[in-house]
Amino acid sequence: MSVSVQGLIKERHAFTAPHYERPEQPTTVSVVIPTLNEAENLPYVLPQIPQWVDEVLIVDGNSTDGTAEVARELLPNVRVIQQEGKGKGDALRSGFAAATGDIIIMLDADGSTDPAEIPLFCAALLQGADFVKGSRFLQGAGTADMELHRMLGNLAFVLSVRLLYGGNFSDLCYGYNAFWRKAISALELDGDGFEIETMMNVRALRAGLKVAEVPSFESRRRHGSSRLRAIPDGWRVLKTIFKERFATRRFEENWSRELSQNHLS
Question: Is residue 237 part of a domain?
């Protein structure tokens, strides 16, 4: 059922993106947002994206509530891509392939990730990181949308990654990430579901990318119910952690080749 575009915009009309200075270095920025029936939530997301962001891509999984129409009304220059496959991972991979910015930022459509934090991610990349992940467990961060069992599960996954891969991640199953577009080809992403975020994180470690964490606050979903299923999706995350640990070491080779070709540092 389609929602009223004008009604949603009026509901959110008083909230506009705060003014942030564009990064000093000449860099273009793309924001990729996967959607599936998120029309009611987009008015809490798209107007908050800093105006200096060069490109916003909505990858829509055949929504039936007018998500694409709401997106175009809120942001006339938005690029809407129709997802051909299924799952969050598939949607993100489609968005990454279509993005043209030097920096690519992942953002959720449900209002849980704050677009006002985008400058933090850009700053970390401009200061030398190849891949930046948001963390809900650093000083100044937090979450309003994680039950105790999910928090304990996330902690177990974090400790597993530390043991198997090294590094010092404080968070794992969180979808607010940013990276240089040149880096994504080194990861050879092939996940289709929610495990895509874990796959990106561990492959970044294995490839030897310079990974940084920045504090991020996760809000509750504005409208609707989450499609995350704690047990099935948690099992997919766990399988990804162990499967990636014993996979062939192609990621390190890919990143070394990428550095050589593009002189990315």
Answer: yes
